[in-house]
Amino acid sequence: MAKEPFLVTLWKISRIAPLICAILLLLNVGGLILLNSYLLPRLEQQENLLLERQGYARGEVQGSDPAAQQRLANQLDQFYQLLPTEDTWPFLVVELPALAASHGLSISRIDYRPTEFGPRPLLRYGLSFAVTGSYDQVKRFIHEVENAARLFVLESMTLKGESAVDDRVSVQMQLATFFRMDKT
Length: 184
Fold this sequence. Notes:
Blueprint: H1 6-13, H2 16-58, H3 66-82, H4 89-101, E1 110-117, E2 122-134, H5 135-146, E3 152-161, E4 168-180
Antiparallel strand pairs: 1-2, 2-4, 3-4
């Protein structure tokens, strides 16, 4: 007696099992074709787009439209021209205490830390000082600093209550401002 092939034996035992295997095989092959012809190229396209956008975010605008690069350079030049020159920094020494005084506050000491900053010649002044007054006075002072004509970056601020009886608070602030360094 000769042995029957495996598939013939399987077909005689159950006609549904080979059909299910065939359908699963076709689905597997179809999924592989879909993956290779559509999904992987689309994924690669999305990865390239992500890498390009990350490059823009880091300031690496290589390979982009030259007109867009020129617009960005023009906007950067315009911003740079809006910054005050470094020879105006003494006005800052007067400006900040005057701003505090206009709200009934006083700044007894300001620590200045100048450093050169960025690829363009910018001078960054880090400012550290404390003011004490009523909560409302301090709140209005902070609002004025945020809306001042001079560019101030509020880097950190610590607010402490001074008295449980009245609303006096103390604020330790660290600001930064920038000046254009015109090399002549």
